[in-house]
Write a structure and sequence with these properties.
single chain, alpha+beta, Jelly Rolls, 8-stranded antiparallel sheet, about 20% helix
Length: about 220
């Protein structure tokens, strides 16, 4: 119950050591093997980030289906949902800074959830995520005001689950230390056909037909 209240109030939950430690080396190798420069993506990517095509990797798919992850996602979405996409993302040295922003729900508040799965240790030096707790249901957030933002720190294997309306941003990687992540997206089942229409532009290669029911997972 405390985690449930925290998740709904804050709009995010940091799952510590969610990824089994013995998976991390293989996941990092998959990330590096899947790296593609901007011009090889259907839509060009930012020059200060490295992007990896890895959504069809078996281990990556296992990460997306970890029971505690699906439980947290289901708690936020509140109805049947699907895995919409996953890609690798990493800020290069001297890059990665983003203005505070929201990714925005599609049809109703809470219908989409994002996850950052950290494959390397992360903190202020290598551009860890900034976020504004409890901002996901506030319309009055000034996206140029950093005073309420907090920056995360943690270890490889952590996973950040957050409502897409939560105000957040990547930060400048001042150390050039690696910060590989899996960026994973889930959406409520009524959005499936809409997501299918943009799947090619988002370079989704995996099968997204599996449906998850929140009632199947204990949070």
């Amino acid at each position: 119950m405390p985690h449930r209240k925290q998740l709904h109030h804050d709009g995010y939950l940091l799952l510590r050591n969610a990824i089994p430690a013995e998976w991390l080396d293989a996941l990092r190798a998959t990330f590096d093997a899947g790296y593609r420069p901007s011009e090889q993506w259907p839509v060009p990517r930012g020059a200060d980030w490295r992007h990896s095509m890895l959504d069809d990797d078996v281990r990556v798919q296992q990460v997306c289906r970890l029971p505690q992850v699906l439980a947290a996602v289901g708690e936020l979405i509140g109805e049947r949902f699907f895995l919409a996409q996953v890609e690798g993302r990493e800020p290069v040295g001297g890059g990665g800074h983003q203005r505070l922003h929201r990714d925005l729900s599609t049809q109703r508040p809470g219908d989409s959830v994002s996850i950052l799965a950290y494959l390397d240790d992360y903190g202020p030096a290598n551009g860890a995520t900034r976020l504004v707790p409890a901002s996901h249901r506030r319309a009055d957030c000034d996206l140029d005001d950093e005073s309420a933002a907090m920056q995360l720190s943690g270890r490889a294997g952590d996973m950040l689950v957050f409502d897409v309306d939560l105000v957040h941003a990547g930060s400048l990687n001042i150390s050039a230390a690696r910060r590989r992540t899996l960026l994973i997206g889930y959406a409520a089942l009524p959005l499936y056909e809409q997501y299918q229409q943009t799947a090619r532009l988002r370079n989704v290669r995996m099968d997204t037909r599996e449906c998850f029911d929140p009632r199947d997972y204990r949070f």
